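Hey L., structure's done. Input below.
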Amino acid sequence: MPSSPAPLAQLPIRHLTSGDLLACADLSENRGWPREEHKWGLLLTAGTGYGIDDPDGPGLAACCVVTSYGPGLAAIGMVLVAERYARQGAGRRLMRHVLAEAGDTPLTLYATANGQPLYEQLGFAEASRAEMVCGRFTFTAPAPDVPVRPATAEDLPAILRLDHEAFGLDRTLVIARLPAFADLLRVAEEDGEITGFAAAWPNMDTHVIGPLIARDPGTAKALIASLAAATDRPLRTDIDVRHASLLRWAKENGIDTIATTSVMIRSLPDLPGDWRRRFAPLTVAAG
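Output:
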């Protein structure tokens, strides 16, 4: 029988480690999400995981991950509660714990329609929306003729500078992991200047494109097309709805919308950086 709400509310919240990866993947699967073990590996090493152990046996009753970018911002992701403990306040309790730990640090997250009311009650407001698109790239609509090439180790300083400008904060802790985490990493370069970069990393049977940082929509299209040409997997990514021309082009090429999420923020009027150059996050779980 499911545990009653009272014992669950009294259980301690602990930090997760890489040793909890399979338990996190099990919890994802329990809620009908893909296991995403590769992504969990990144999140648990680059961020801080929080979890409530299942009182009735091995595994987790609830979890989430926070990826910090210093005092200016932290991203919350993978907020999950096991089905048997749903609607018993575990998600709210976990979020309140994270808010207390964050203190004055602004927070951001991607919310589904089901989760948005809770986050609004906790002080989050919608800053934008994003469309999750997925499909096999058809090359029906051409990309602009922008030079794109595989990234090299020598490109990392320029990638970090460009990312800092677009994101508004230092993401070295995460971006420096891209060469090992991603299967493909591309840069757009014009007149000796790197004007954009994008990674494609494996997730179940797809390649997820993210982060995607570019000078303009044309450069973003060229980066996506270059990544698509290098994989035989379906592509998935999350595109800010304000990039309407990129979304139209993606759909013309067979990558259609499968979900829409709300980009929410707490303690700031808007996200830092330049949204016009941010086309897709590394993952909605880490921003």
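The chain has ten helices and 13 strands. Residues 1-6 have pLDDT under 50 and may be disordered.

-- N.
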